[in-house]
Each structure stands twice: as structure tokens, then as C-alpha cells.
Amino acid sequence: MALNYSWLIAAFPAAAFVIISILTIRRRNISAFLSILGIFLSFIISLGVLLARLSNPQAPPFEMGFDWIVIRNFNIQLGILIDNLTAMMLIVVSLVAFLIQVYSAGYMGEEKDASFARYYAYMSLFAASMLTLVLCNNFVQIYITWELVGLCSYLLIGFWYQKKSAADAAKKAFIVTRFGDLGFLIGIIIISTQAGTFNFLQIGNLIPQWAQDPSIGIGFITICAILIFCGAVGKSAQFPLHIWLPDAMEGPTPVSALIHAATMVAAGVYLVARVFVIFHASPAALLVVAYIGAITALIAASIAIVQNDIKRVLAYSTISQLGYMMLALGVGGYTAGTFHLMTHAFFKALLFLCAGSAIHALHTNDMWEMGGLGKKMRITGLTCLAGCLAIAGIPPFSGFWSKDEILTVVWNFPGHGILKVVAFAVVFMTAFYMFRMYYLAFCGEFRGKHEPHESPAVMTIPLIILAFFAIFVGFVGTPCANYFGDFISFAPSETEAATAGVHINYAAMGLSLILAIMGILLAYTIYRAKAISEEALQKRYRTIYLILEKKYWMDEFYCWMVRNVLFLMGKISAFIDRYIIDGIVNVVGWATKLAGIGLRYEQTGLVQYYALVIVLGAIMLMLGLGLLDQSFILNIMRPFQVFLDWLHGGI
Amino acid sequence: MKQTILFYIFALLIIVSAILTVRMRNIFHAGLFLILTFVGVAGLYITLDAEFIAGVQVLIYVGAIAILILFAVMLTQGIYDKTQAATNKQQFGALVLSVILLVLLVLIIMATEWITGNQAAPSISELAIDLMRKFALPFEIVSVVLLAALLGAVVIARKEEK
Amino acid sequence: MMVGLIHYLILAAILFCIGLFGVLTRRNAIGVLMGLELMFNAVNINLVAFSRYINMSNLPGGQIATLGQIFTIFIITIAAAEAVVGLALVICIYRNFRGINVDEVNLMKW
After folding, report:
1. C55-71 burial: b if 16+ Cβ within 10 Å, else e
2. ipTM computed for the complex
């Protein structure tokens, strides 16, 4: 019953956006109130949807929609698809968005009125787009909302657009994700042309037939899957399109928390999960997903180790965790990946908001100017500790359960040992850099200028709520009683059966725990106990440090590519356009002009010349008409006959 | 027999005079040869038993048109100018085309089956009766044409009044 | 050989072509008119020869024995009118151009 009203989930924030933009753009309090109210109402209805699904988890997905564009037998719908995955995502998105919007009231409090209202307008627009994305039932709609969330990301990253670095970061985010979206669009077109429809469920039903069909086959499905994955690579900041996410930290911290940690970047993972049917039919595509996820996780974690800006650490951490989720999906762990998506949303949002709290108090992002904040900002410190423990994977925090499930799935995956090595290595690195951050910022002596104070309640209460979830939400997915796994699973799935609570993989659990503790201890040694200093390590491992600091020179590589390859292609295209294509048109015009110049000599102005031409024409006419008439030709011969006879007669 | 000889004499006269008309550098001399051509044609008409037409030919062509041409020649100077060419640049082309046309015409003439019959040539009284009865309308129209031509020539050729 | 219709017709054709040559090549405007008169005369010879030799009795459109010569009279008349107008034009051109070379009168040139 609530399901029939599910369209309201996206409608409330959308209405808030419209009202704020048009009516209340100068009034800060009303704008904030409307926006928060809108997302709160969405949360309530999402709760209703979740309860409806929980009461009947095995029910078929709920779908409703209407035809939007109908051209003969080509049909684009706008519709809603609600299955268990959707229900979970709705809760996560609306709850996290609600908490962050409340938090923003405190964080963005120093903004001017119009700016403040503008922030909430964008927040509402984002909420509406993201919720619609989660509710979509067809490819066209998801692409539209995909671009909408990309737009909101652009608007919010560049919120302080007067700052050049912010404007550049916004552009970079939009353009880099556009590359991914290109592949996504091509994939959509190919698959929907073959299927004759855009609808997820209908395409899903067709996939098994295609796998059997020799003319289509798995190769085609692989291509579609990889192209659709391109969109996820862009949006979820996977290698090689991850370069926009660290720069996106130019935006306000709540924005980073909401969009670039909890929700929008999760859209890529959500997409892969939503159309998992397509990926599942193609082992090759799944491997691509897994490897890219693994590479991303490894590279990002390694770069996070040497970052000095607190938000950058968290940004790279996000990239790394998203890689983890992709790795999980790639080895067939549908439940594992989506579970980690949920827990990550909570603890990453928590971590970002804690960082935001520190930044708000100290007006600096640099961790080396922080220190000892745990004493002065108790709530922030404690909740941050909770978040760090969660992400490092220490039981009983939520991150432990979701990470463990991923590691189990990877462990049980046949072959590809390198994926397993990477997965466990990243556990170690994650623990290390997260606690490096914690010790640098919240422990030891304060290294900054003016004294920090705890943030206001409007900011700390969301922190506490998120910490609660970061600690406890993992319990829905423990291996002993995997409620989450029962609720959200991909059927049929052979890999799932192997991991879904059949036996608990103590080896994986133990290994991950040991690695996490080792990471924490190493961080403690360097940054808390100061037994080894970071500078000494930097000097010792200069080359590695340089590579990591320069982020593997990826940004420089892209600049080089753009300058030399893209612009070169542009120059060639411009040349072809200007000289060849325009040239053809110009030649036609030039030929006409030339013909005109030539033909004008016909008009000599001399009457006798004209008379000559008339006579010529008359002769040609006579010849022509004469030749048409056979008797003429015969008769022409007669004079010659007469002449010849006369000759003979004479002779 | 007589007709044959006379025909060839007059034919020769006509052709030679015509060629000289179109090739003479001196326009006045060309006009004189034109007169000779007209006279030859008149003689040809006599051989064809068309005496009236022959008379008309001499009266009108020689007596009026040719004289008019000579007057025009004298009124517009440049009778004889050695430095200027008598013919323009399309001599060769005109020659070729004329020859082709001639060949074509001769072929056509010889190829056609003419329905000939040896009948008596019409007399002057028959001509007069037909002109005034059957061809009365064209007769009147031609009169009007002459009037128009006369007036037109006067208007075109008179000096502009200041 | 007996002179028949064909001889006259061929003679007329020759005269016509000579006249055509004169029209196309003469520089002096009056020379052009002279060629034109030659062409007219050729046509007249044709017509008179037809009137003498062609058997009209079976031709459609009624039988008018005098047709050829009547036509000739009219042609002579019209030729006179045309020569008059032509020469008037020549005199007018002479007044404006101080010369009657036809190939110098090319104001309609491109």
C-alpha cells in the first residue's frame, strides 16, 4: 500500500527544490526547513516501503509506471521498480541525506542568506535525483537521473564558485564522469535495441535466451555489460576515472559526505547490482569488474597513506572501499557488495562529518595542524573513533561484518589468487591510514593556532545517530543469522549458495582481524608513540613516497593525453572540417562561380555571333529530326545513287 | 533548250555576283554587285514564265531597295577603309556552317519526291484576280505593314530635337 | 540536260548559303543587310520555281495555281519594308557610334 505512494519519495524533495528556488531563495530558515522537511517525509515513506517489503520479502518486485514517449512500437516509460535492494537503498539514501542536511544547518551557518538557501535547494535537488535513480525501472530513466546527480555534484562541488580551485574541481568531476557516461549510453542503446525495450525486468528475462542464442551469445552480453560498467567506473570513481573524487573535496564537507561518500558514488555499485542479471551471464564481464575494483582499491589505499589533508584521506578511502564493493560484485558476491554499500554509507558519512566538525572548529584541513582534538571535542572524537574502528573492520562494528563477507566471497572464488592478495593487503592498508588519521587529528598534542571547541548540537546529534548505525547496523548481516543475505540476494546464484551462511570461513575472518590489528599497531607506533618518525620513513623510502605523493602521476598523464592526443584529434578534425568538408562545399560554389565566369563569354553582345549559333542550332535540328526518320536516311542515299548511275551512264 | 542555256547563264551570273557581293571590301562596289544579282534573278524569273514577278523584282529590288542601300552607304561614311577588315572573326565558322547547310539542303532537295507536273504558268490577270479576291486580307495587311515601316523609319532616323 | 525543278532549287540553296555567309561575316551593317537580301531572293526563286513546276491538283487545302507567285509578291513587299527600317536603324547607329561596324556595337556584352 505504501508502495503505491512510493513516487512521493522523490516528489517531496523535488517540490522542496522548486519552492526554494522560486520562492524562498533569500530566506535561509524557511529554505532549510523546507528542504529538511522534504527529505524527512521521504524517509518516512521509505520506511513504509521497507516495512512493506519486509512483510513479504519473496514477493515479486513491485512495478508501476506510465508510457512517456511512444513511437510506434518503441516505448520509453517512466516508472518505479521496488524490490528489496531498492527498499534498502531508499532507507540508506534518505536517512543519510536527512542527517547530513540537519548537520549542514550548523556547518554552513556562516554562509550568506542567498547562498545558504541555494545550498539547500541543491541538496533537495540532489536528494530527489538520487531517490529517483534508486526507484528507476528502465535504462532511459536511470540515465536521466544519472546525469541529474552528476549535475548536482557539479553544482555542489563548485558551491564556492568564486574559488578557482573549486570551479575547476567541479568541471573536472563533470567531465571525467561524462567519459564513463559515454560508454554507458552506448551500452544502453545496444542492449535496448537488441531487446526492443528499456525495462530492466524485461531485459533481465531476455538474457537467458540471448545466452543460448548463437547469433547473440555471451560475447554480446559481455560487451553490453562492460559498456554499462563504464558508467559505473565514472560515477563510482574506479580506476582509471577516479581522478575527480579527490579534487571534489573542494566542496563543503557535508556535500563530500553525502554525495562523494555515501550516496552518489554508490550509484555505480547500485547500477551493477541492479542489472546484475546481465553481468551474471557473462563471466568475462564479472572478471573485468573484479579486477578494476581490486586495482582501484589497491591504488587508492596506497595513495591515502601519504595524504596530509584530512578530507583527501577520506576521499581516497572512499575510492578504495568502492573498489572493494566492485571486487565483491565481480566475484559474484551480490549480497556482500550491497551489504558493504550499506555499512560504508553510514560509517563514511560519519567519518566525513567528524572531519567536517574538526574543520569547522579549526578552519583548516591539514592534519598536521590538528592534534589532541579528542580532548577538546569529545563527541566528535568518540564518534570518529567508532567510524575508524568500523572501517578498519574490527568486530563488533558494522564494517567488520561486511568486510568479512566480501573477504569470504573473494576467498572462495576459484582461481585468481592475486585478487585475494589484494583484498587482504587493502585491509591492512585501510586500518593503517585510517588510524594514522585518527592519531594525527584526535590524539597527541594540539599543533594548531587557536583553541577548538566542540561543534553545536545540530552537528553532533547527527554524528551520534550515524555512529549508532556504524556500530550496530552490521548485525543484520552476520554469518550466523544473515537477515540481510536473505533479504537481498541474487537468485539464481551458485556463488551465493557457497557463501550464504553455509559455513563460516574462520580463516578469512581471522586473517582480516590480524591484518587490521597490525595496521592499527603500526599507525600507533608511528603516530602515537612516535617510535618511528614519518620523516625518517619518507627519507628511507623516497621513491615509493614520491610515487604515492604524485598519485602515480595519473593527473599528469591525463593532461598529457588531453593535450597531445585529444587536442591533436581535435586539430585533425578541425582541419578536415575546414578544408575538406567545407572545401567540398566551397568547391561547389567555386565551380558554379567559375562556370558562370566561363559562360558569360557566351554573351558577346555581337549579333552575328548569335546568328551563327542560331544557324548551328537549325542545322542540328534538321540533322536530328532527319536522322529520326528512316525514310530520310534512305532517301539521302538516292542522290548518290543517281550520281553513281549518271557516272556509269556516262562511262 | 533555250531555257536550259538561259538558266545556266543566269545561274552563273547570280552566283558570281552574289559571291562578289559578300566578299567585296568596298561597300559601294558590293552594292553594285548586289544590283547585278537582282537583275540576274529577274532574268531567272523570265525563264520560269513569271514575267510579272520579274518586272516587280526589277522595279522594287533594283529600283527601290538597292538604291536605298546605296544611299545609306553614302550617308554613313567609311566606304572604303583599307586598315579595317571587311569580315569579322567568325569567318571560318560561318564558312563551315554555310557549307554544311548547303550540303544538307542539297541532300534534302534531291531526296524529296517532288510532285511535278508541266502546267501552264499563271497569267497576270489570274494573279490580279487572286490578289484582289482570295488574298485581299493579306494585301491590306501588307499595306499597313508598309505604312508602319515608313513611319517607323522616319521616327528612328530623324535627328533628335534639342 | 533538261532543266527541272531540282536545278532551280539547288541554285536557290546556293544563293541562300552565300547570303547566310554574308550575314554572318560582314562587318559593315549594310553588308549584313545585303546578305539578307540575297537570302530573300533565294527564297523567292524557290517559290516561283514551285509555282511553275509543282502539280497543285492533288494537294490538300484547295488548289490555287497562283500561290507561289502571290507569296513572292508579298515577300518582296515585306523585304522592302524591312530594308527601310533596317537602314533607318543603321543611320541611327551611325549617328551614335560614328561607325557602323557591327562587331563594335556590343553594349550587351557581359
Report:
1. ebeeeeeeebbbbbbbb
2. 0.90
